[in-house]
Each structure stands twice: as C-alpha cells, then as structure tokens.
Amino acid sequence: MDVGSLSGVGPKTAPLFAALGIETAPALLEYLPFRYDDLRFPTPAARLGESGGEENAVGRVTDVKERRVRGLEIVELRLIDDDGVPFVAKWIGRNRYVYGRFREGMRLFVRGRIERAFSGPIVNVSHYAHLEEGEPYHGELVPVYRASKELASRKIAAVVKKNFSRLLAELPLDPVPASLARARRYDSLDDAYRAVHAPRTPEEAERARERFVFGEFLALATAAQLRRRERESDHDARPLAVPPDLLERFEREIPFSLTGAQRRVIGEIWSDMSRNVPMNRLLQGDVGSGKTLVAAAAVVLAAQNRMQSALMAPTELLAWQHAGKLAPLLLPFGIALEAVFGSQSARSRSAALEKLAGGEAAVAVGTHALLTQGVDFDRLGLTIIDEQHRFGVEQRARLRAKGVSPHTLHMTATPIPRTLAQSVYADLDLAVIDELPPGRTPIETFAVRSSRLDRVYEFVRKNVAAGHQAYIVAPAIDEGESMLTSVVAEAERLKREVFADLRVGLLHGRLASREKETIMGRFVRGELDVLVSTTVVEVGVDVPNATTMVVLDAQRYGLAQLHQLRGRVGRAAAKSYCVFVYPNDAGERERLEILTQTTDGFKIADEDLRLRGPGQLAGTVQSGAGDLRLGDLLRDVEVYRAAKLAAERIVADDPHLERAEHAGLRAVLATAPSTRALVYSS
Ligand code: ADP
Ligand code: MG
Known about the structure:
Elements: H1 14-19, H2 25-29, E1 35-38, E2 54-69, E3 72-80, E4 86-93, E5 107-117, E6 120-131, E7 141-144, H3 153-162, H4 164-168, H5 178-183, H6 189-197, H7 202-233, H8 246-253, H9 260-273, E8 280-285, H10 291-304, E9 308-312, H11 316-330, E10 337-340, H12 346-358, E11 363-366, E12 380-386, H13 393-400, E13 407-412, H14 418-424, E14 429-433, E15 444-449, H15 453-465, E16 469-473, H16 487-498, E17 504-507, H17 513-524, E18 530-533, E19 546-551, H18 559-566, E20 577-582, H19 588-597, H20 601-612, H21 615-625, H22 637-653, H23 663-671, H24 673-680
Parallel strand pairs: 4-6, 8-13, 8-14, 9-11, 9-12, 10-11, 12-13, 15-20, 16-18, 16-19, 17-18, 19-20
Antiparallel strand pairs: 1-7, 2-3, 2-5, 3-4, 5-6
Helix pairs in contact: 6-7, 7-22, 7-23, 9-10, 10-11, 23-24
The structure holds adenosine-5'-diphosphate and magnesium ion.
C-alpha cells in the first residue's frame, strides 16, 4: 500500500513523506521515533529547571500580558501551580496563534525549556493544552520523528496514529527468527511496533526499540558471517612464497629498523598471503605509527612472487603522498610504480595503464580512478585500501574484481577499541600497530584562548625562523554567516599583515585537484613556510619539517579529529608543537586539556566517547559496517554481541538460509544491494 492512500495523506503530503524515504505503509511503520517527549508528569513549579531539558508544568493563570511588536507576538502568563507556587509561561514568535487565547482563571498545561529568573522559573513554551476545571492531567509520551521543514514530526505522528491498524495489516519483514525472538523474550512484531510508536512507558519503548536494533544487527552480522564463509571457501588466491631471508633484506633496504609492532604485523600479513584463501585484514595504527612501511612490505612480497599490487586512497592528495613515500621504499627491490588519478592527463594515464596491463609496472597507486573501466592488471595479487571506512563495500569489491581472488589489506588510522573493532569488522582479521617508531620527541600541546592569537602567531614566526614549517587549520572556506574563521580570509590577512615577509600558501577542498597538488608539493619541498588549510590536511600528509600545527576554532572538532590533525607534526626528530585555539568563552578548556595530557589515540577515543556520547564515533564505525538505521554500534554493543553470536549459529546450521524460520532474514538481506549477492549466490 502506498503511503498516499492512508488517511490524512493527500497528493500534497505524499511527496513530503517520500522525501523522507517513506513511500509505502510498511516503510512508515518502520520509521521509528528517535525520542519521546515525556508529557506524562508535571513538575512542581518549585523544582522547575533542575533537569536542564524541557519540562512540564500545570497551573492556573493569574495574569495575562500580551504585546505585538513588529509582527512578533509576545505573550507572558503568570500562573500558580497546585502547591500555590508561582511561575511564568512565555511565548515569543511569529504566527504562534496564541495571542488573545488566555484568560485569568484558566487551567493550563505547558511544556518548554526552563529559564530560571530571579522572580522564579519561566517556561519558554513549546507545547500547551487547556485543561477543564477539575480535569486531572493525563499526559502521554509523544513520539518525535525525524522530520523535514515541510513535514513536522507532529504530522507524522498523527498519520501513524490514525492509520495504525491499517499499518499493522501489512507488517514489514521480520529478520528475527521466531525461536530467537522467544528466547530473547521479545514481543510479537505487531506489539513491538505498537510499543515503539505509542508507548505507555519509556521502558516499554526501549524494549521494543531493542527488538528492532537486534533485528538490524542480526542482518548485518549474518551478512558479515556469510561473507567470511564465502571468503574462506575461496581457495583461488595465489599462495605467495615467503623467502626466509626476505624480512632481513627488507630491513636492510629501508632507512631505519622496524619497530617490534611493525615486524609483528608484517609477519601476520605475510603469513596470510602465503595461504590460498584470500587475505582480508584490517591494519589499524595511530597516525605516525608507520603503516606505509607495512604496506610496502606486503607489496614487496607480492612482487617477489611476480604479482601486482594496487593501493587505493580516498583523495588525490593522499594517493599522491602514498606514491611519493612508497616509490623510494620499493626502488631497491626494482619495483616500478604507476599513479592513476582522475585529474591526470590522458597521455600520462594511458601510459600508466599500458604498463599495468602489460605487467611492467608492479604497483598502481591511485584514487577511485582505479575502479574505472580500462584500468586492467596483468596479475593483480594484492589490493590495499587506505582509510577503508571512506569506501563502500561495493567499491572495495570492484577493486578486488580486477584480480583473481587477490589478497586485501585495509588500513585505518581511526582508533577504535579492539573489542568493538572485532564486532564491527566481523569479516576482517585485525592487525594492530600499537607502538610508535622511536626517536620522536613528544609533541608539546597547548590550548590557548583566541584573545592570545597574536602570541600564537609570534610563536609560529619563531619556529619558521628556525627553519621549520607550520600548518594553520581553520574550519570554514569562506566567510559566511557562521562565526567561524575562514581559511581564505585568514590566509589573506596573514599574507598581508602578520606574515607579510613569509611564504604563505592556501589549501582547501574547493580548489581544483591540480592546484591542490601544486600547493601541497610546494609545501612538501619547503617552498612555503606556512600552509593555511581546511582539514583536507587531516589524514596522511607527511611533511617532517613541519613542526607547528595551529588549529583555529578547535571547539568545532571532536577530540579524535584534533588528534588526527596533531598527527601531521612530530614526524621527525625535531621538537614539535600543536596549539589549539578556542574562543574566549570557557568550557572548551577542560576538553582540550585532555589532548595536552595524552597522545594515546585509543585513550583519546575513549574520552571523546565519554564526553560526546556514542554518536560521535558512530559515523566512522557505521560506515565500516554498512548503513544502520537504528542501532548504534557503541551504545548497543551488547545487543550487537548477542546478534553476532546468533548469526554465527544461524550460518553454521543453515548456510543458505533455506529454513522456513530464516525466510524473513533471507528476505531482508535480499533487499539491500550490498547483501543481495550473498543470499542469491548460493
Ligand atoms: P602512518 O601510520 O600515519 O601512515 P607513516 O607510515 O606515514 O605513518 O609513518 C610516519 C613516519 O614515521 C614516516 O615519516 C616514516 O618514515 C617514519 N617511520 C615509519 N616507521 C619507522 C620506523 N620503524 N623507525 C623510524 N621511523 C619510522
Ligand atoms: Mg599514512
């Protein structure tokens, strides 16, 4: 049934629902509230304002003041609650339609954010209702849906309520097998939908939500399990021979000795690559931990076995930098490298493609451009995906399809607690570099108020005078309506006034790729002293002579991201500094202090999690896992564990999901493009 045939949805509103992804009745039922406004209990006026959020109050109007000022309605009521304590209810705004509606003596329910004034609490009303004389107050939990400007949550709630029994007549697929739902004491599917759209208590809503989250995780974990199973049944990978002296030779040819952690993960990776089952390993290592060298070791092993490698990075800047770092590491082994970029000239592209197709070049480094048609390999045996969470499952598969069951190494600098990583990347094996190369002087980190920016720039000047380079990072490109520092404006100001005698460059995401490369190249070669940039420098850029990082408007970024930015400096023996500049209002300081006290990426990720709640890492983590509508892999980690165990059992017992009780799960997997192939390949 189309959403348009529901009562309360007409030809005008149906497209508004469609814009939110709701085209059918089951889709509406699956559109779950993300929170509830609790209108059940009024707070006594004497205690209003304690929660910090919106609160409810009930009282009798004792005084009405109304004004209209330039189209604004301002209504201010005095009330007293049942205990005789006074409070104020206030509306300010356009078209609120409250003007003239209130009289002394009326009983009202009001809800809103509380302001605590000297004279008593003020409710900034978002919601109100008239109460009849003597009528006891009966409030509800009001579901709040993700809405759009044209389609309010209230309208969605009304349509759900009005059509509820019709919606239940067409239940969405239930991925949770009946026996499992019973074992976990979940309600029947229709009860769960009732409980989540119209709960009587928050506990009831939460339990119902868990059922849906479990279902979502079960599908995700089953897909991962099927993928793992499929991979392990693939014995077409080329088993590579590891010459006994290869590690020794490798260490002789690189400019330093490997850290213990690098040696260990190289061992793990080489041992994977010596099997006929394709490797699928995630290499996790903090910024600066030396992942490039590990990637080089994998490439060397492939080349020793006359197999080609392809490394794919999310941006041209990164791909370009990888090429620059890998080439000298590979040169002593006679391994030739070709780059494949979108912005490359047709001539250099076709020369590169010819060498890759003919097998003269052993390594391709590039961006998504590697995925295009016409990029062919002679014998692709290894694919390496940098910052793997920035690529989708399908893109990674497309690169692998250029070879015959190639080994795959995924790399990430995002620190995620290990147990979590194991559940999220269920079809990957993990290798962690948990040790930084020696000889680094720790980066000294400061948090500084913006009123002292002049001093910060003096400090930059001093370091430049000592022969070093500096990054200055700002959040916005242009000067806009936001109060944020714009890189364009700040670069202009620095060039003209503060650093008029220095060589200042400007880098941001809107520049053409070629221009970005030119600027970055000049900075790398030391032809620029100061690089003013947006966070495009965030990942991977490596300029050892850059020893100062200044981040303006540091309040804009999560700790993990600030830590990534800091990782751009401290890449050589010279003493490095990182300065986080925050606005004069306090509050930020405590958060930034964490960074001044530790450089351990995992610890910082934990703190970030504690401060900002689970949503924070969710973006990165979830894109690693695919699309999640409901579950939050950090908050719901226990539910995920249970779902993963269940998935393992299901796939072991019924690998093709043929049993009747797995029909729902199978059907759910078949509806998503990224998992469809798994259930139809059997
Ligand atoms: P990331 O893990 O962030 O990609 P890189 O591979 O770019 O780190 O390495 C960071 C820096 O450390 C590079 O300048 C690299 O040359 C250097 N490096 C890597 N491994 C070692 C090592 N074992 N000893 C000394 N320096 C190293
Ligand atoms: Mg790197």
